[in-house]
Write a structure and sequence with these properties.
The protein has helices at residues 19-40, 60-71, 94-103, 113-123, 160-174, 192-203, 219-228, 240-244, 246-255, 265-269, 280-295, 317-323, 329-332, and strands spanning 48-53, 81-86, 108-110, 129-134, 153-157, 180-186, 207-213, 233-236, 260-262, 274-278, 311-316, 337-339. It is α/β, with parallel strands linked by helices. It is elongated, with a radius of gyration of 29 Å.
């Protein structure tokens, strides 16, 4: 760079710029130009997901969710961070654990069923919430509409009230001699599932006994009441409390020798007799799609609550043998999976 002459500074009284000063000016200008470029090269913020589950690890549904994320290009620890919280089958801990995730300011909360959804909505109105397993979310007051959920919560519905008819019909087909059926209902849940089940029972000419439970402490008494009333079969309605204590419920059904129908495969895998319902693994895998859309700028209010696309009818023949019952061939042939 040439040295500036006096002619170059004509009109600026007293200014004389020599070579050292000129180089300093150039250096400062270069720094101002380089700063925006350096800022543009900063690594992008890694999104943080808060994942709350009612039980303890290992959890097959968490594995399905992670598989869904991998299919979308997310690798835990590389381009996404997951904050895990486990309620360890203690539903009363869910609000406390949800509050922890809110304090961490995670980008999305993925939580457990209606109980988790209610706790999350009470804890935050700004952080997006995705619930993979919603039971009649309109009746539960979680969303005003499936098509336009509004607010900061969305997810996938299990269609439990709509499937109640099918479950009762399957019980009747499997045990045609049964005239009295007990239902185990979580009294904290919305009434829709119970009411739909009662209506189907009346249509099938069945006498229905309602067993209410609000905590794990109510389960022993509920099964004892079903046994005293000589119920011929049991229908377990949807509840995160029941799923979190599925091993206990399956054990009580075995001890009271009650053939039981459950809402999804997870109970049968734990030793339950039979189940019909949506694939929970598939719902969790698809929940990853919601998370991806939200991280890319979509609002939960605009993401419709989806209905299940995959259903499973599962029967545990080992449990049937232990109970001393025979599953009709007409029922077995339509099963999607038979556990020997």
């Amino acid at each position: 760079m040439r040295q500036l002459r006096s002619a170059d500074t004509q009109g600026v009284p007293g200014l004389r710029i020599g070579a050292p000063v000129a180089y300093l000016v150039v250096l400062v200008l270069c720094l101002f130009v380089a700063l925006p470029a350096a800022e543009a090269q900063q690594p992008p913020k890694i999104p943080h997901i808060g994942l709350l589950r009612p039980g303890s690890p290992p959890d097959p549904y968490v594995a399905s969710f992670l598989r869904g994320l991998r299919e979308l290009g997310y690798v835990e620890g590389q381009n996404i961070v997951i904050e895990y919280r486990w309620a360890e089958d203690r539903a009363e801990r869910i609000p406390e654990l949800t509050a922890e995730l809110v304090r961490l300011k995670v980008d999305v909360i993925v939580t457990a069923g209606n109980t988790g959804g209610i706790a999350a909505k009470q804890a935050t109105s700004t952080i997006p919430i995705v619930v993979p397993v919603l039971t009649d979310p309109i009746a539960a007051g979680l969303v005003p509409s499936l098509a336009r959920p509004g607010g900061n919560l969305t997810g996938l519905s299990t269609l439990n009230p709509e499937l109640s008819q099918k479950r009762m019909e399957l019980l009747k087909e499997t045990f045609p001699q049964v005239t009295r059926v007990a239902i185990l209902w979580d009294a904290r849940m919305a009434l829709a599932d119970r009411e739909a089940t009662e209506a189907v029972a009346r249509a099938l000419g069945l006498h229905l006994q309602v067993l209410e439970a609000r905590s794990i402490d109510d389960l022993d008494g509920a099964f004892a009441a079903a046994k005293r009333a000589r119920a011929g079969a049991l229908n377990i309605l949807a509840s995160s409390l029941f799923f979190g204590n599925r091993a206990r419920i399956v054990d009580l059904a075995a001890k009271t020798r009650l053939p039981a129908m459950y809402v999804h495969k997870g109970f049968v895998a734990a030793g339950g007799l039979m189940a019909y319902g949506p694939s929970i693994e598939d719902l969790f895998r698809r929940a990853a799609i919601y998370v991806d859309k939200i991280l890319k700028g979509a609002k939960p209010a605009d993401l419709p609550v989806e209905q299940p696309a995959k259903f499973e009818r599962v029967i545990n023949l080992k449990t049937a043998k232990d109970l001393g019952i025979t599953i009709p061939q007409s029922v077995l042939i339509l099963a999607d999976e038979v556990i020997q």
